């Protein structure tokens, strides 16, 4: 496809320019820090780009493996070019509806588009002050600034850990629904998730009021909040994050109010669900941030077919990350003859210092079987205390690529992983909001919904970092990526996360 044809097909100018640059620079050579010459990191294929908006379906193969829509089955929904997988099947490729048995509910008609202009990093923006005047809840609750146009966020004057979110222009359809959102602590992941949830409810014109509470992982406060929700006859609870979900599962399983997990890791791996093929049979509906390990490793195998070593970066205190991300990938690697080095932070408060000490040791270990480190990589789990230290990680890994299970860790600039393969906070929260919408409309019961997983996974690429370490990016990754940053670290394709954070 020519540049002109690509532009006619709807590709942004910056994206077309990046693609052409990658193709032209295929023969170029870059001088590395050791004085050796290495190939410029280019897309490792010169197949023509197909400007299609059909779903890219990936079950247990890399994203480009199939272009044929799958059988709809029990359709759960769609998210842009993603399908939503419940249990062991990929359901409803590209459908614009959300179905429980025999009934349909509309998904947002608004496209989840690509940004032609560089947008601020979601992770970085989430940590920046939103406005000169800080709100009582600013230390733990933030959201996308554009939501101020449609939602009014009001702090509780008696409790800085509680706030209310109401529509500025109430919708007339249906009775008012009351939704509790339970936070365990502050997190930039939750900033992204709550923004996505509010956008979905705005698009669906649900007549809803949210009460958001940070229970700070205190049992007494959690019980107090649940008693309040039951006394006020709340209609639904979002358990925000793996910690809130685990607490709610232990203390409120079988309760009267439906609970939907969001920004939470795999409930099957954590023992909260028996399997992926059935609902919970209780008041819980689960979604998952995790991609099945064999799917992730299919991408890794395409990236490095002769992989010899994988170093897993994890916070040992983050039980959900250990059980659902670190241990499964280590088990898979060992079964396939890949060396595993575990880099486990023992104290989240000293993660930076520990990583600066542990990562060089891991590199030395990998050199024993891979002297040039061309067949090794670091696997960055969704441990907040670890991935927020990406600068320290990059300072110590040298030329070994860092691949993250959190797509948002691939960002603008140099403080980034080279590649992300996982389910973004945005995508997961969108799915959780779709589940909640179905439950509130009485279309389906929470306990009948299977574990919700977005498929194929979100792919994010930093060509700046790839250039720096001399790594080639497979063409299939480029074609299906949701987030792409060019050689200067600028966003040229970006789904969601645009605008400032309040």
Write the layout of secondary structure elements.
Blueprint: H1 3-8, H2 13-24, E1 29-31, E2 37-39, E3 78-79, E4 82-86, E5 89-91, E6 97-100, E7 103-106, H3 122-126, E8 151-156, E9 159-167, E10 177-183, H4 188-203, E11 208-214, H5 219-231, E12 236-240, H6 241-252, E13 259-262, E14 284-285, H7 293-303, E15 309-315, H8 319-335, E16 339-345, H9 351-367, E17 376-380, H10 384-387, H11 390-397, E18 402-404, E19 419-422, H12 425-440, E20 452-455, E21 458-462, H13 463-469, H14 475-480, E22 483-485, E23 491-494
Parallel strand pairs: 10-11, 10-12, 12-13, 13-14, 15-16, 15-17, 17-18, 18-19, 21-22
Antiparallel strand pairs: 1-2, 3-4, 4-5, 4-20, 6-7, 8-9, 9-11, 19-21, 22-23
